[in-house]
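Worked example 2:
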Amino acid sequence: MKLTRIGLPVIGLSALALVGCGATAGTGGDSGPGSAVMIVPFSAGGGSDVSGRAIASGLEEAAGVNITTENREGGSGAVGYSYFLGQQGNEGILLASETALLALPLTQDVQFDYTSFTPIMKLGDDYTLLVVRDDSPFESCEQVVDTAESERVIAAVSGATSLDEIVFTLVEQDQDVTFDRVPYESGSEVLAGLLGGTVDVASLNPSEVLGQIESGDLRALCAFADDRYEYEALSDIPTASEQGIDVAFAQYRGFIAPGGISEEARQFWIDAAEEFATSDAYTEYIESNLMQPDAAYGDDFVAYLEGNNADLEAVLR
């Protein structure tokens, strides 16, 4: 991926007036841009929370805007997204977005879909690992599937529309098996349930479990990715397809603005996002969270969402 450094244009920040949550555009005056809010539609501690806070920090540096982060969890992300829907036209609020933006409208009675908002930036792709406790009898993903054919296998999921729910559904469809689910509100709660012995298996992002894998508390049985990771810490983990399970699905990480904002405000945030993508902070976020960099902005992000939405429709409907 080649990124060209683009300076932020002078677009009349006094007119843009990036202000706090619930406010509308006004005049910023000589103080320059004011503040903004980054909504995280999940609880603190999980991958979405980490993503939102990293994006907020990177945009602060790129755009010179003070951005606070606010968690509005509940309903597998529906509470946060529904609140954000009510911020139509507010140019001083953003939301840390992920695959729930697409999955929620396909599975729940919500009043929005991805076309309700203004996509700004897709940072990259975040696959998952199937993990078990170190004392688990499972030694491979293939063994987990074989067991599920005749016995109860309890899987943790962080909500009905989460990446792990999608991955387990794809495995069920590919292998003609069924997993029992225990739902949680975030990846951190899933991790606690797995470590506490409440569930047998979990599908978690590498960044959420690397510490426990390195400490020996958890083992990764396979990666639901197209290819093995190049990161040294994950390079020995086989893909699911290597074990006869034809499943690879990534959750995107990115951020969106409300619908109904001005073209000037949209371009401001896109330019800030492109500036952020050239920074050490972006590289640090991608690498520390063991993600695949695959940035897209504005219309290209919209095109990605259109294609991903069509893929999810085939799975969730």
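Confidence is low (pLDDT under 50) at residues 1-33. The radius of gyration is 20 Å.
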